[in-house]
Automatic annotation (TrEMBL):
Primary gene name: tig
Signal sequence interval, chain numbering: none
Keywords recorded for this protein, A-Z: Cell cycle, Cell division, Chaperone, Cytoplasm, Isomerase, Rotamase
UniProt note: domains: Consists of 3 domains; the N-terminus binds the ribosome, the middle domain has PPIase activity, while the C-terminus has intrinsic chaperone activity on its own.
Pfam families linked: FKBP_C, Trigger_C, Trigger_N
Residue numbers spanned by region Disordered: 35-56
Protein name: Trigger factor
Catalytic activity: [protein]-peptidylproline (omega=180) = [protein]-peptidylproline (omega=0)
Annotated source species: Bacterioplanoides pacificum
Amino acid sequence: MQVSIETTSGLEQVMTIGVPAADVDAQVVTELKRISQSQKNNPGPGFRKGKPLPPKVAKQKYGKQARLEAVYQQMQQSFFQTVQEKEIKLAGMPKFEPVVDEEGKDLEFKATYEVYPQVELADFSAIEVEQQSAEVTDADLETMVDTLRKQQAQWNASDAAAEDGDQVNIDFEGFIDGEAFEGGSAEGYGLTLGSNSMIPGFEGALVGSKAGEETTLDVTFPADYQKEDLQGKPAQFKVKVNEVKKPELPELNEEFFKAFGVETADEAEFRSEIRKNMERELARAIRTLTKQQVVQGLVGANEVDVPSALLDQEIDRLRQQAVQQFGGAQQFDPKQLPAELFKEQAEKRVVIGLLMNAAIEANELTPSDEKVNELIEEVAATYQDPDQVREYYSSNPEQRQQVEAMALEEQVVEKVLASAKVSQSEATYEEIIRAANQPAQ
């Protein structure tokens, strides 16, 4: 078998392979036998059912089909054998093109494919990371308990004036220059005051209103409002308040504690469990923010060529996620979504993956049992039966592999931090949780 490899552009290579005619002929015979066997119950006129066709007849009937399949088999086998021998890192499936494909002659074909880029990582010392620290204060705990109570609140109609945090049911109609505009009206609209779900000034103007009252609000649409024809325009809204509802917070008792998975009648024990959960959440958030900075540092310090095959795969993944997120309609083909919608995000993901893999290889990292167990314990601690979680990961290799992948990423972060310029800063619990929950830039 003769092989030559040429790099055409960027990460694309073309491999030209010559396969002896005898190898192709032998494969044709194999394919003819397979086809003949598969057709023995439908041999056609003049032949007995259940008996394979004679070789000569089989060649007349199925020779072309057998050669097509034999050539494809030979191209695949020869190509992937060469890839293995030469340790080529394929970044996608090849495209085959026969150059010489004639009976009695050596087969010659070309395979066009992409390879993974060679990533030479820049020195980690150029990366800057600001590590934040915080603690869960008594005030943070009180805020969390208050939030949990509000989640379980009973909403009761009230004749009292509406306050921030109350729910109001309203009818409204909006006008610009005295004319009603499209999308500016609703009836029976439920609104929580202080939720900032309406344009600035709208909710605040309803504080102090009572059920049955009508009022006119003067507001201005933001300059960056989603509808361009409304951006920056002053408007008036005629509003009728149909109902005001105020929350009745539940008592801190055993029934309330149980709703959040804490089996106790002791308020101090409940608060202790909530604090532990907040501390775990805080630790995860700090780790997330640190990792984001490390990843941003790696991306900023290294230029990476992106294989189009990997980019296409990632775009398809994002398309699938988008369809699932919006109901996962079976009749909707994700490929109908324009690739451009996902290209930037997909490219960033691919680059991050390539850099992470390069760091793992360069530092010869393998998943640390200690780190894997630490991550599993972190999950187990949030369940009532931690042993059940541990057993789940120990008996499910695929799930454990996912944790091992996370552990490897954590180890990369630790490796980078050991050489990077790391500064320390203090923040509040709320600041860190909010920052960690924002989409990564």
